[in-house]
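Table 4 source record.
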Amino acid sequence: MSQDSKLSRRELLMAGAGAAWLGAGAFSKALGASARAPKKILYFTKSSGFQHSVIARKDDALSHSEKILSEIGKAHGFEVVASKDGRLFEPDKIGEWDGFVFCTTGDLTTPGTDKNPPLSAEGEKAFYEAIRKGKGFVGMHCAADTFGHFKPRDKSGEDAYIRMIGGEFVSHGPQQVATMEVVDPKFPGMADGFGKSSSFKINDEWYALKNHPEDLRVILVQKTEGMKSGPRNEYDRPDYPATWARKFGDGRVFYTSMGHREDVWTNPNYQSLLLGALAWSTGLADADLTPNIKEVTPDYKKLTR
């Protein structure tokens, strides 16, 4: 990061306060200070598996989520480039990006559902190496249903993508209003958004997740009591992490299970969370990463009650 693009210590502290979409709050002003050297973000929306409606394009026009992230990013000092082209991860191109946002499904090394160019084996390797060396990563919703869920594991039963993102998709039940418990209201983007209260309710499609490492800094917890499961009894289990942050090498990794529905994307609190994640993952804001997964979701490894 160049000296001009860094926020002052005071601005970093202000950034932790959060802000709503296009608001005039401290977080918005702090991000605006970095506009002289905008962070360049690749918003990758390739679908090698099921294509979600929020990333589906019509006549090559940007999708619902691509428009929103591009617009709010531009307003807060980020240059967001939305693409479904896996060739942008090639070793000679990946250095162009300061961070990556994934709303993807399936094995992205195959053309899959949307038939767009996949990542090569070299591109996938370059992606993980870029994160390890300090690039930022933000994944939402179906980003947990990508790569490792479909590819053979190594001898330890692990997968590079799952190790990086910090969790793996199991399945999901019907869309429904569910309760999220706020366990880190100080994470950038939370204070003026979802973090205004200790919990909130929102309608979305909720991913059941597993294979979490012990170093997660959990931000939101999925409260499972009263949830209606599908055929696989996805939510007949103790509470588990739904939004988190962690380090992967020198890189900063953020994930939230929210983001299936169009009205979630237009929710100012969700937009604030994504802006905070962009700021933190690209080094414009700091956050407490002390692992808390064992304290806030003590039975997270149990997939049944």
